[in-house]
Hints:
- It is a single chain.
- This protein is mainly beta.
- The strands form 8 sheets. The protein has a 22-stranded antiparallel beta barrel.
- The longest helix has 15 residues, at 2-16.
- The radius of gyration is 28 Å and the shape is globular.
Amino acid sequence: MRSIIITIFSILSLSAQEFKIEGQIKSFGENLPYANIMIRNIEKGTISDSNGKYSLDGIPSGVYTLEVSYSGYNIEKKKIKLINDTIIDFNLTKNNNLDEIVITGTRTFKRQTNSPVIVNILTNESLDKVQACSLSDGLKFQPGLRVETDCQTCNYTQLRMNGLAGGYSQIVVNGRPVISPLTGMYALEQIPVNMIERIETIRGGGSTLYGSSAIGGVVNIITKTPQSNTLDFSYTNQIINKTADDQIFNLNTTVVSKTKSRGVSFFLNKRDREYYDDNGDNFSELPSIENISLGTNFFLLPSENQKIESSISFIDEFRYGGEMISGSPHLNQQAEERNHKVLMGTLDYQINFNDGNSSIISYLATQLTDRSHYTGIFPDEEDEINTHLNNPPYGTSTANTFQVGIQLNHKFNNFFNGANVITLGSEILEDKVLDEISSYNYKIDQTSKSIGFFLQSDWEISPEINLLSGVRVDKHNFLENLIVSPRISTLYKPISNLQFRANWSTGFRAPQAFDTDLHIAFAGGGVSRVSLSENLREERSNSLSASINYDYPTENFIYGFTVEGFYTKLNNAFLLTSIGEDDFGERFEKQNGANAIVKGFTFELRANYKKKIQLDGGFNIQSSRYKNAVEYIEGLNPVRDFLRTPNTYGFANLNFTPNPSVNGNVNLIYTGPMKLAHFSGAPEQQFDEILNSRSFYEMSFKLSYTFKEIIKKSSIDMFTGMKNIFNAFQKDFDSGKNRDSNYVYGPANPRTIFIGFRMNIL
């Protein structure tokens, strides 16, 4: 009897004791700082310190499941029986890219498969495989996205998401809207790929978290952060249709301290492209570009629970298009000249507390742009010539963007038997835009200010069900009333590889100048300019989407697909309406027009065999139409279709790596027919018309070979390939100085051969 009592007493004493769990988080010998460690049975957790060490105190004896997660790595779990202080180490492995950590959909860290909204990822490695030289080259390989060139002379580009024009999408850098309307016209080409770590894209309404102009979706450019000591540089020479050279030099270097508590990275990009004339009229179809971009990222971990991150970049670009004659642009028959100087910077501070369950993030971001430019046509009449020479249409532009904000995240580990992450934030955004050409009596002078508050609940009701809900309230200085933008999304995972999602969201666009409004086009021997109506109201949207996502991984083979249906209704949609001509050309005004509906389906396919053969692709079938027909050109029959918006488009990308030294890539971009406006003026075009373009395919390939250890701890990649193999370039460009510069469709470049090398020093 005595022994039984002693045994019972010992058990009770043991159960009353509390113990400590500690250990090290590594990946193949490298410490992983700030990994998440969670005891699932009691929802108690912490994060590893700067050396990858962690400690959990006050744990009662028992049987527990210890779970470790880290961005870009597979989740590791260990089951332990705790009867004394225990050391448990983890060695994480990198994941297969089908379940990356993403932040854009919720503004918190979350795995793709656990996110209630679809987030697509384009990594730096993927950009390299398709030989992307700029952001515009890479975004073509994201489902639901299409990048188009909109000017024959200056080649400004815009991004279309799910059938909506560029002004409906929010492009952010590290989550901050530092790309101003003025800079946005050329930013897709100006941002080099060697500053990009990855690109996260969400389709559909994002105004709840990101405010105005996120109706179509959000593209988040995440820049490279220091991770290890590296140095690499590359050189590429592209020959455009045997005629023009395009030379690109990239440099990246990173230094990280031994303790991983601080690090700095630096990038440099230099690009020199000659102008290119496709139809032999001595007017360029591709402008010349001289671009230098450089920048740095820095992080500091003052303590185990604090992190400071900062980035700064500078872009200096000269761009010229038009008559290919050297000298002052105002002496040429027709020309556009742009000289941009762009400075962008961000600063973030994060502190974690409550055993990693709470965090506060404060941030500021800014962008400063100075632009000098010329846009003009040399007149034919003698009196107009004198006026032109005495007062040529040179202009100046400035744009200043500033954002400051704070965000609080808190995780309730026992919220109605589930877990709920509450995100509360506020931010102030100011945009100042001045664009002026005095000789045209053209001036846009705007200062837009908005303050926004957002609240989000990310409720994991069960391992199978997640409910994301949120609301944002914005006060914009151009609007009298508050703008309320709610959204709700749900995720259902009946099995680990299958996800069903449904989403409803609202959005808005404030009545301010957008990037395309700041473009002055040539047509019919004059220039067209855009102004804003005094009675312009905000544009509102309601969006619905539903999707099925399936991924099946095996030891050697991974395949998956996504099918998404989307529906967006636009109220008070913005329209450009002709308000007549003046001495310089056509005038347009942005007005509120008819309602519109954009709907369709997005299909995604992906497969991977032993990481040696990888296939991914996307295809869109959609309809973008106004409720009532719109008169795009005065005197012509109105139409309901959005211009420059094909009903079908997509891409396919095949990558193969037969051995570690050889890599090959073949890709295809398809764009279906679309309605275009074509104004008269050029010898080939005697009248204004609305027409249908032809469909086109753009196929490219790249081959590379890696020489390893030529120099200790280094490698050299030699690569070559061809873009637009079959030269599916537009065949009916206007010619001469009176051409319609906006009559552009088809691939951005003709057939282009490239060759280059890249050297990496570890």
